[in-house]
Design goal:
Layout: H1 2-20, H2 29-35, E1 40-45, H3 50-59, H4 65-70, E2 74-80, H5 88-98, H6 101-107, E3 115-119, H7 129-137, E4 142-145, H8 151-161, H9 183-189, H10 193-199, E5 212-217, H11 220-224, H12 226-230, E6 235-240, H13 242-248, H14 258-274, E7 278-281, H15 287-292, E8 297-302, H16 309-320
Parallel strand pairs: 1-2, 1-8, 2-3, 3-4, 4-5, 5-6, 6-7, 7-8
Length: about 325
């Protein structure tokens, strides 16, 4: 009798999970939240120690799927390997430490609560293929390439993130150039090799894809060409770099200079027109205004500067819900 009751409880619990969680969700939480028209929050990460990874996971608590999609929380981290050391072994170990069995059990699916993006130490006009391949093969969900200035550069970046597809595929172009050895990425994502290959394509070019290509516009030529750049299929989001742009336009360090603000406005309008999110830098004082201005993705704070800014922004957003 007790065994029968236990089995019924387990069945009911399993049914409850399956009823709440769609079968075909995105494993990239950022994409899932964007498709649910929710605000997406990320933070910069430089310290790639496993203890930091565990702390980031635990900072969210362990929400169920419905909560994780609908409530403001830390949705992604942007790991800086442009101005910090590029060490693929350290990155691999950090990503392994981010994997949480408790997340999987509580959510009832394989979607991590924190998606991972890496900013690479290569610019748009430089060779990108090898570095993109390495970080994707250790299991990240997206890449960030600084100083993209031309559409041809953006297309080359998208191609480096894609596996080759059959020529009769409706999304054959931009033609993929990524080499195929996804065993570690598949392991981290909890998938078989064929399943990983199905998921490992760029969104929104592939509506079912779980990889995001993020480009940075931070040069005069990049701003001038932004409309053409955003016509490249496969760009998932854009970051405007006000600090670098201030140097490019002749006002070093003056991120609030009118020329810098004007350039960001040009990029924002182009992103809105193309339907591509522009990732904004938010703080507790400006986040409400940015939400009203149709920003959907934010970067808040930095792991090496624990000033409480991230939590303060989350508190503001929770009150706006």
């Amino acid at each position: 009798m007790k065994l029968t009751i236990l089995l019924l409880v387990i069945f009911a619990f399993s049914f409850s999970l399956s009823a709440q969680v769609p079968e075909n969700i995105h494993l990239n939480k950022v994409i899932d939240k964007l498709e649910h028209h929710q605000i997406v929050i990320g933070t910069w990460v430089s310290a790639l120690h496993p203890s930091n990874a565990i702390g980031l996971v635990e900072s969210n608590g362990y929400p169920d799927y419905k909560t994780s999609i609908s409530q403001p929380m830390l949705d992604f981290i942007l790991i800086d390997m442009e101005h910090q050391p590029y060490d693929i072994s350290v990155l691999r170990n950090f990503l392994l430490a981010l994997n949480s069995k408790r997340d999987v059990v509580t959510k009832g699916n394989l979607q991590p609560n924190i998606a991972t993006f890496v900013r690479l130490p290569t610019e748009g006009n430089e060779p990108v293929h090898a570095l993109i391949k390495q970080v994707l093969d250790v299991g990240v969900h997206g890449i960030v390439i600084p100083h993209v200035q031309k559409a041809a550069e953006a297309e080359r970046i998208v191609r480096a993130c894609r596996y080759r597809r059959p020529k009769d595929s409706p999304i054959y172009q931009p033609k993929g150039t990524r080499g195929a050895s996804p065993w570690l990425a598949a392991y981290l994502w909890g998938l078989t090799l064929p399943e990983y290959v199905d998921h490992a394509d760029v969104w929104p070019l592939n509506a079912n894809g779980d990889l995001m290509v993020v480009i940075m516009i931070e040069d005069l030529e990049g701003v001038e060409n932004v409309d053409e750049i955003l016509r490249v299929k496969g760009i998932g989001a854009v970051i405007f770099g006000p600090y670098d742009y201030s140097f490019a336009c002749g006002h070093p360090g003056e991120t609030a200079h009118p020329d810098v603000v004007k350039a960001q406005t040009v990029v924002k309008k182009a992103c809105d027109k193309a339907g591509v999110p522009l990732i904004g830098f938010a703080n507790p004082d400006n986040v409400k205004k940015m939400v009203r201005n149709n920003y959907r993705m934010f970067l808040v704070g930095h792991d090496v500067r624990p000033d409480g800014r991230l939590q303060k922004v989350l508190d503001v957003l929770k009150k706006m819900k």
